[in-house]
Amino acid sequence: MQPVYLSIQQKATGERIRELLKKNGYTVKDIQKFMGFENPHWISGRSLPSIDNFLILSKVLHTSIEDILVVDGDIFALKLNLWKITIVHKFEKYSNGN
Questions:
Q1: What is the pLDDT of residues 30-72, one digit of tens each?
Q2: Least crowded by CB within 10 Å, which of 24, 39, 47, 97?
Q3: What three-state secondary structure class fits 72?
Q4: Helix residue spans in 1-98 (DSSP H)
Q5: pTM for the whole thing?
């Protein structure tokens, strides 16, 4: 299997968070109050939310973490590799009588 290289785009992810906030009727100030932050640097794209904060955002914004992230890389190759692993696993399980 070929390695897959992905890169999370911080600035674009921050922009996506802003777009999703607006789409869901929230302001940056709403999120600051809700999550207890003075200045969440990830909204400006200077950093990324922690996994805990990604989880909170995904629930508040009614979307998945994957849909919040902006990723530069070969997503198709990643999905294809995951599909291949799943097929091989199912075949091995079937072959072993499980």
A1: 988 888 877 778 888 889 999 999 999 999 999 999 899 988 8
A2: 97
A3: strand
A4: 10-23, 28-35, 51-60, 65-68, 75-95
A5: 0.68
Angle at 48 between CA 45 and CA 52, to 5 degrees: 145
Instruction: Please determine, for residue 87, whether its predicted confidence score (pLDDT) is greater than 90.
Output: no
> Shortest CA distance to 43 belongs to which of 66, 62, 22?
22
Cβ 74 vs Cβ 4: under 8 Å: yes
CA distances, 21 to each of 6, 30, 53 (Å): 25, 9, 14
Query: Do residues 51 and 66 lie in contact, with contact meaning Cβ atoms separated by under 8 Å?
Result: no
- Sign (positive or negative) of CA dihedral 16, 21, 23, 27: negative
Q: Please, are residues 78 and 43 in contact by the beta-carbon 8 Å criterion?
A: no
